[in-house]
Amino acid sequence: MSELRQRPARPDRDLAKAVKDSKAPAISRAAAVLRLLGKSDTPLGVQTIARQLGLVPSTCLHVLRALVAEEFVSFDTDTKRYSLEAGVLTLARHWLRRNRFNDLAQPALDRIGQTYEVTTLGVQIVGLEHMFVVATSQSGHNLQVSAQIGSRFPALISATGRCIAAFGGHSESDLEARFKLLRWDEPPTFQEWLTQVRKTRVQGFAVDTGQYISGVTVVAAPVWKTRAKLSHALVAIGIGNGLRRTGLPELQTALLQAAQTISNQLCGEFGPGEA
């Protein structure tokens, strides 16, 4: 079983800038530490955390100790490193139970996944920064591509990224700056990608045929929580040959119809051009 690739850990300048510019620095520091630990594949020491977030080590240590006391972060006395604790899961479970998108999307993801033998995801979009997987469904077949709830990906990558670019209202200069940071197996040029974005705007959904991951086809359709803001997307992922066998055009139609239905349920009937 394959897994979708996430962005590798690196010094997080965006988090550091958010902490520096915040009007509530204590809260921002704690949030930045949690986000950094959440995307790290391994536990981190206080010096590493402080360096990546631009914090004074003593200040960083105070934040970590407070998070440990609240059971959001755990501390390994042998390695002197920190990682997320189960308290974060409690908050996440509460959020997932109260998230209307998940309630509406899960039956559609299950139905489409089983019908077309694909992995389906519901993702939440956070501007041009990133997207999070908040719902998943798998068909049960042996050869699949998978992603876990909570997985985080660059916002503009693959088919979902084309939806964000097409319907998110972002300037071309902002898109180009983010596009340059993306990693693909078969990378398109920026102009080729813009052509794909324009096609997405016309047809209402996007397709990535092996550019993000060779041999893997990704279809995405946008979902709106309000008329003014693109908030989520439904995503179907499958091995290329399998999708051709089960019917890619039919899958595209089913995913788009499901996304439109969920959008209507969340904020009333409208089309992509009106969002």
Describe the protein in words:
The chain is built from eleven helices and eleven strands. The strands form three sheets. A six-stranded antiparallel β-sheet has the order 8-6-5-11-10-9, sandwiched between helices. Strands 2-4-3 form a three-stranded antiparallel β-sheet. The protein folds into two domains: 85 residues, Winged helix-like DNA-binding domain superfamily/Winged helix DNA-binding domain (Arc Repressor Mutant, subunit A, Orthogonal Bundle), CATH 1.10.10.10; 176 residues, GAF domain (Beta-Lactamase), CATH 3.30.450. Helix 3 crosses helix 4. 36% of the residues are buried. It is α+β, with helices and mostly antiparallel strands and 275 residues long.
Characteristics:
6-stranded antiparallel β-sheet; 275 residues; disordered C terminus; 3-stranded antiparallel β-sheet; Beta-Lactamase
